[in-house]
Specification:
3 domains, binds adenosine monophosphate, Rossmann fold, 21 helices, alpha/beta, seven-stranded parallel beta sheet, single chain, 14 strands
């Protein structure tokens, strides 16, 4: 069996690894570290949870023992798609680099430039950045990339999802051709392979297969539902309440809008819940994650993009509120539970319109997943067909109406960029769409923040708070809140035309 001391790491590093309590290198570490120490380029295919971070941090620490950093000329550069991941890597340098006197600088948004400049002036041995912030520093002339010996591009597939590839290409051009490049991605679709071919020279490919063993310790079940959000929410609540052994759980939605909606719904129903999606500000995201890790929050509603790559501890339950559109996402999601031989449970809500995604998942994992309480054929047929009929009818027109409604009210369209979650064509339910007409996507999930920001139009900075508008909005919201979670209303019901929802301007 390979041990850490077989890999060629320095004594200082080995002693820190021992102190961290790790005895056996993980497959990605055993595969990548010896080549990284030989200054070879690496194309690592591994997801979070495999010990991937240490597979580049440990050899970097060893290699950095020779040489010194010069002001404004970092010696190594690590690119991460999100601030959390960048911060996680910095923590790894602290843990494994405790016997070194290296200067590690974290350049992420939300932190003052001055503070970061001071670190750069002192000379950084390791620079950990999100691409945007790094380019900002370069444009201010505060950074010279010509001294970079090692470039790490982490989570490349996620960088692609988030549209960072042009930034990375710009950055790579500033770094000498003679550098060593360590490239990591959880998946290797053709477009990522093309990128790897561009950035790497004669790389050693180290691939860690998806943890198939996870599936053995995870009880997976499918739950038949109609494709109606209120019914899915109600079924989810029952499911959560029925789990006697639930310690904590992650609930996955396909779209950030749904993350925000489901979070609010669960919160209203008294669950201990947090949310994680791409539009949340940094402080909220950090608080939310810390709360979940400390068991102050039991449930975390998340999108794939927000949750991927985060070192979230083992969870007892995973709930797929939406079936993932990309089969690999199912494996990523399920991999959050049942770690290290522990048992876990994973439930996936499935409606009739989801069967093609279910087929793809079952094909990928090579097994049929059992249904809990009967399959789709046991669902009462009428409600589903009613729902499907509505879903098909004029959805484009609905969208147009929705847009027109927003324009009429002074461009209240959410300014948040669409989350880059590939093709997210999951059918939005009508009730949810009406809510969206009334109110743009609210992305601040913390109670305190929601209360703090009561501007009637968060998109218009000039708008002054108007308590009367707030009251009206709250009344309307609670109306929809009620039928959000209850049975389909009579009369217009879900079909209320958007124009009837516009409230006359409050008299001042
Ligand atoms: P990562 O894939 O880098 O996010 O690491 C996932 C988790 O595995 C982290 O909590 C690490 O601290 C832990 N870890 C890293 N290397 C090892 C190892 N050799 N043995 C056990 N756990 C490890």
């Amino acid at each position: 069996m390979t041990t850490f001391s077989d890999l060629g790491l320095s004594q200082k590093v080995l002693s820190a690894v021992t102190d961290a309590g790790y005895t056996v290198p993980t497959p990605i570490q055993a595969g990548a570290i010896p080549f990284a120490l030989q200054r070879r380029d690496i194309c690592g295919i591994a997801q979070t949870g495999t010990g991937k971070t240490a597979s580049f941090v440990l050899p970097m620490l060893t290699l950095l023992e020779n040489g010194r950093a010069r002001a404004r000329m970092p010696r190594t550069l690590i690119l991460e798609p999100t601030r959390e991941l960048a911060a996680q890597v910095a923590e790894n340098f602290e843990k494994y680099g405790k016997n070194h006197k290296l200067n590690v600088a974290l350049l992420i948004g939300g932190v003052s430039f001055e503070e970061q400049n001071r670190k750069l002036e002192r000379g950084a041995d390791v620079l950990i950045c999100t691409p945007g912030r790094l380019l900002d520093h370069c444009e201010r002339g505060k950074l010279l990339m010509t001294g970079v010996e090692i470039l790490v591009i982490d989570e490349a597939d996620r960088m692609l999802d988030m549209g960072f590839i042009p930034d990375i290409e710009r950055i790579a051009k500033m770094i000498p051709f003679t550098r060593q490049t360590l490239f990591f991605s959880a998946t290797m679709p053709p477009e990522i392979q093309k990128l790897a071919d561009r950035f790497l020279q004669n790389p050693e490919r180290v691939e860690v297969s998806l943890p198939a063993s996870t599936a053995k310790t995870v009880t997976q079940r499918l739950v038949a539902v109609h494709n109606k959000d209120y019914e899915k929410r109600s079924r989810l609540r029952d499911l959560i309440r029925a789990q006697e052994d639930l310690k904590n759980g992650i609930i996955f939605c396909n779209r950030k809008k749904d993350v925000a909606d489901l979070f609010r719904s669960l919160e209203r129903h008294g669950f201990s819940v947090g949310a994680l999606h791409g539009d949340m500000d940094q402080r909220s995201r950090t608080n939310m994650l810390a709360g979940f890790k400390d068991n102050q929050i039991t449930l975390l509603v998340a999108s794939d993009v927000a949750a991927r790559g985060l070192d979230i501890p083992d969870v007892s339950h995973v709930f797929n509120f939406d079936i993932p559109i990309h089969a690999e996402d199912y494996v990523h999601r399920i991999g959050r539970t049942g770690r290290a031989g522990r048992s876990g449970a994973a439930f996936t809500l499935v409606s009739k319109s989801d069967t093609k995604y279910l087929d793809a998942i079952e094909k990928l994992i090579g097994q049929k997943i059992e249904w809990l309480d009967g399959d789709l054929s046991s669902l009462p047929a009428m409600a589903e067909s009613q729902d499907e009929g509505r879903g098909r009818r004029g959805s484009r027109d609905k969208d147009k109406d929705k847009d027109r409604g927003r324009e009429r009210r002074g461009g209240r369209r959410s300014e948040a960029p669409a989350e880059p979650v590939k093709a997210r064509e999951a059918e939005p339910a009508k009730a949810r769409e009406i809510e969206e007409v009334i109110e743009p996507v609210r992305t601040e999930p913390l109670n305190s923040e929601r209360k703090a920001d009561r501007r009637p139009n968060p998109g218009n900075r000039n708008a002054r708070p108007n308590p009367a508008n707030d009251d009206q909005r709250e009344r309307r919201r609670s109306h929809y809140r009620d039928h959000d979670d209850g049975p389909t209303p009579v009369g217009f019901g879900d079909e209320i035309p958007a124009f009837m929802l516009i409230v006359a301007a409050a008299k001042s």
